[in-house]
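quick one: flavin-adenine dinucleotide bound model?
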Amino acid sequence: MTDAPLPIEEVQAVETAWTTGIVIEKAQPTDDLVQLRVHVQDRIRHRPGQHYLIRLRAPDDYTAQRSYSVASDDDDPLVEFLVERLPDGEVSSHLYDVVEVGDELEVRGPIGRWFTWDTTTPAVVLVGGTGVVPAVAMLRTARRLGRTDLLRVVAVGRSPDHLPYRAELAKAGASLAYTRVSADTRAAGAPTADEVRPLLEGVELAYVCGSARFASYAETLLVDCGMPVEGIRVERFGPTG
Amino acid sequence: MAVTRGFLGKRRGQEHRLPPGQYDVGGGWPVLTAEATPRLDPQRWTMTVDGLVSSPTTWTWDQLHELPPSSYVGDIHCVTTWSKFDVTFRGVSVDLLLEAAGPQPEAAYVMAHSTTGYTTNLPLADVTDGKAWVVWEYGGKPLPREHGGPVRLLVPHLYFWKSAKWVTRLELMAHDRRGFWEQNGYHDRGDPWAEQRYQGD
Ligand SMILES: Cc1cc2nc3c(=O)[nH]c(=O)nc-3n(C[C@H](O)[C@H](O)[C@H](O)COP(=O)(O)OP(=O)(O)OC[C@H]3O[C@@H](n4cnc5c(N)ncnc54)[C@H](O)[C@@H]3O)c2cc1C
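yep, here:
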């Protein structure tokens, strides 16, 4: 990181190379979520929405690498990841079951220049499951800059237990929706057009992140609510669609 | 780099077919797009080859289907690290389209454009001599919309972002120009075996 604190709007994406990440903190907030906070050597500044690659290497040099969105703001001294352990998942189960504080991981990032929030454009963020991770980074950055009014986040999970960062999202003013259980006054179900339409007023961009199924639902909903297709940015991760 | 403590790898399947850093996704086919999935009416869609050609040519859906068809059976590799073995696509060879349009001698690069405004650049040599197709069938069925249906470019020897979904135009150029993902940090060529993922690889 540079000494001169360049405003984040002016941070440009640059070429990245593999470097070493050291796991400084590890938490397992649920049976299938692991949060890693990593010190990244020769770290490059990131914009909210970007991701890193994490690469694991076996003794015979076999490697497996996957992408993980960054949850932390750029001013956090550590880079934070939140990973869902998939049954039989090659990389996620290693990160959940095996990794310990002090371990070294090969990392590369930040990557992605499209699915990033520039911190000045009013936006709606519609995210589901582990897709909330980039939304968390956006909200944390907005909070530091005093621009939370620019972001309207709708976060969707099967149930409260399946919504990572639920408390933090709620505190930051995100609307939470659970598809399988009712909570407070809201009945179980995906967000509806009536819930999303009012959030689109004055908004120029929409970010959608989650599984392929969630992303198709969210895209269609946004278009039905009048969001122009050109203003929708999508990041899909998760099971095959 | 150092070995990751405790990692042996699951290494499912046929590693000799996997380029470095890839894994076998098996029966699945992840959908990765940066944009909302468009709904295109094949009857209104057209395919154009223009730029540095002697006769810019446009085909309608029906005209394209009148060209001699050809198939690709083999593997595909996505920069997000999945590979998929033994897929079948059917469409027409890009060679046929280029033959009709007649590339000029200076033409050395191609920009593929999709109806969504997505672009991706390729050396002309990567889409000629039976290396690239314009396809509308996958596994014997119409290409699903989320995978680029009705029509996508197929350049299976390069990372799959080069295989532009919803392709509508191939523009021949004398000089290379970066497309959408390439401007966003991805490699200009994208050879999976050389692991050309990002600019600088
Ligand atoms: C840009 C980007 C950002 C990402 N950010 C995150 C993130 O912040 N947190 C996170 O947890 N993941 C994230 N992912 C997904 C991540 O890269 C891996 O795909 C995921 O961790 C699975 O890897 P694995 O090696 O554990 O499983 P694999 O060994 O690759 O897969 C095991 C099996 O599970 C299936 N599968 C893959 N993903 C899922 C899923 N999500 N749910 C159910 N089944 C699945 C596969 O098809 C396969 O059959 C992101 C992906 C992308 C492209």
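Residues 109 and 176 of chain B are 6 Å apart (CA to CA).
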